[in-house]
Specification:
With 381 residues, the chain is of the alpha+beta class. It has eleven helices and 16 strands. Strands 1-6-5-4-7-3-2 form a seven-stranded mixed beta sheet. Strand 15 and strand 16 form a beta hairpin. The radius of gyration is 22 Å and the shape is elongated.
Length: 381
């Protein structure tokens, strides 16, 4: 599929709004419902297991009160730490179930075992309604019109994502910022191991690009700096958390081989908001040509960084420097495993032919993102 078609597909998934609770039909109550995303994604399956364990544990009034106080202000909390730090009777079995689910999530996302716990919980809906709580999983599919939630008896209910629920809803999800930080390190390390030049700090054999960059750094180097960035309003539903965005910058290194650098955007939480990060996107001392490309992606929970690295490396290593710049956005995006497109927002937008002299505002190819750049000289100390 071409990048332009994928851009159109991705943008179609950015138009949901906000949610209510309706009881599941009697035939669906006895057996907790499992949606297609749960079947397709091991991350969602692990989240679902943790959500069901949390729902059952909330039957204990002392634990329910303690958990409610911990997340009453809507703050995202580590679910494992919350359960592990409690002395209530219901927390111990929950902590064990969450620990197992956390290990499954880390493995499914292709992250190292020392990444630590990723599962989180927030409280939304109507926390002060006095009604019994439900527990749902943050969906990985932006096109979902309903999600399954569980009550303290293990019965399934349907949450309509068009209106905010009138009951308290604990939402189990993944710490996206932590996952992106760990994931981009995996991405760069595995790309480097496959022979693609990156900024991976554990690559022991310096490439021509790295050696030349060291020489350039004796005086300084030019960069393209993001002075402002904005994404179009994606109207995230009530159950979705902040966006976790990163960019894949690609071009040809000084040795003439393809190069990939990752840049995380932890501040870029909400669409429809303009941010002013003054963040370096491209370090031009690492590139042979005065052109580079950027593809912006979002981790919606089920991103497998190891699989992504292998796919990108396999695509880029077939591209040779023929003495002229070749745009690399298309092969990068086309290499993304098909499972990533379960949630169209995994791909946000792309920018072709960024140049060192470029200043001002540049819209992405999909008209979903907008960068404003300036040239920025980084001086050596």
């Amino acid at each position: 599929m071409s990048v332009r078609k994928q851009l159109r597909t991705a943008l179609c998934g950015l138009a949901l709004t906000g949610v209510v609770v309706t009881a599941a039909p009697a035939t669906a109550v006895a057996t907790p419902a499992v949606n297609s995303a749960t079947k397709a994604s091991p991350v969602t399956a692990a989240e679902d297991a943790a959500a069901r364990a949390l729902a059952r544990s909330l039957a204990d009034s002392a634990w329910r009160a303690e958990a409610g106080r911990a997340v009453a202000d809507g703050t995202e909390r580590g679910l494992g730490a919350l359960a592990g730090g409690s002395r209530t009777r219901a927390a111990a079995p929950l902590a064990a179930a969450v620990a197992a689910a956390d290990r499954a999530v880390v493995t499914a996302k292709g992250l190292p075992a020392d990444t630590g716990a990723l599962l989180t919980v927030t409280l939304t809906g109507a926390p002060h309604s006095g009604r019994a709580p439900l527990v749902a999983v943050e969906p990985s599919d932006d096109e979902a019109t309903a999600v399954t939630a569980y009550d303290t008896h293990g019965r399934a209910h349907t949450l309509d994502v068009s209106r905010t629920p009138d009951v308290p809803v604990y939402v189990v999800g993944v710490d996206g910022e932590k996952a992106v930080e760990a994931g981009t390190r995996v991405l760069e390390r595995e790309l480097a191991a496959a022979g693609v030049a990156t900024a991976a700090p554990d690559v022991t054999a310096p490439t021509t690009s790295a050696a030349s960059a060291t020489s350039a750094s004796s005086t300084g180097f030019w960069t393209s700096r993001i002075t402002s960035v904005r994404l179009d309003d994606d109207k995230e539903t009530w159950i979705k958390g902040d966006a976790e965005i990163f960019s894949i910058v690609s071009g040809f290194g000084l040795d003439g081989k393809v190069r990939v650098d990752t840049v995380t955007h932890p501040y870029l939480d909400d669409a429809g908001t303009t941010y002013h990060p003054n963040q370096v996107l491209v370090n031009w001392s690492l590139y042979k040509y005065n052109l580079a490309d950027a593809a912006m992606m979002e981790d919606d929970g089920d991103t497998d960084y190891s699989a992504l690295a292998k796919a990108i490396a396999a695509a880029l290593l077939t591209i040779a420097d023929l003495g002229a710049y070749i745009p690399l956005v298309d092969p990068v995006v086309d290499a993304v495993p098909s499972s990533f497109w379960t949630d169209d927002a995994d791909f946000v937008d792309a920018w072709y032919t960024l140049a060192r002299e470029m200043t001002g505002t540049r819209d992405g190819a999909g008209a979903n993102g907008r960068f404003t750049f300036d040239r920025y000289w980084v001086s050596a100390l």
